[in-house]
Design a protein that fits this description.
The chain is mainly α. It has six helices and no strands. It has helices at 8-15, 22-29, 33-49, 53-63, 71-81, 87-90.
């Protein structure tokens, strides 16, 4: 995951690739340059503390439907509120 965050261009290519779910690509299709920079900056923290990429994309499915101010907090909050998830293996110390 760290290599995805090396630059905005690498991040854009990944987020628009077939390696991510369709809803992420649809979300990214609507981003202008300013919003790309904002989304990139928002994704830095969750990509560092979430241990499982699949889980991160699972949580993003719910978060990207709404406006959010702090993606890291939104990911953490979604994890804590979900009674089916045990946050210990999903969230790094």
């Amino acid at each position: 995951m760290e290599k995805l965050m090396k630059s905005l261009d690498i991040f854009k290519k990944y987020m628009c690739s077939s390696q991510v779910p369709n809803y992420v690509r649809r979300y990214c299709d609507n981003l202008d340059e300013f919003k790309w920079q904002w989304f990139y900056n928002q994704m830095i923290e969750p990509m560092e503390f979430v241990a499982d990429t699949d889980y991160l994309f699972h949580v993003l499915k719910w978060i990207l439907k709404y406006d959010f101010d702090d993606l890291g907090y939104a990911v953490y909050f979604q994890t804590i509120l979900n009674p089916e998830m045990l946050p210990e293996p999903l969230i790094k110390d």
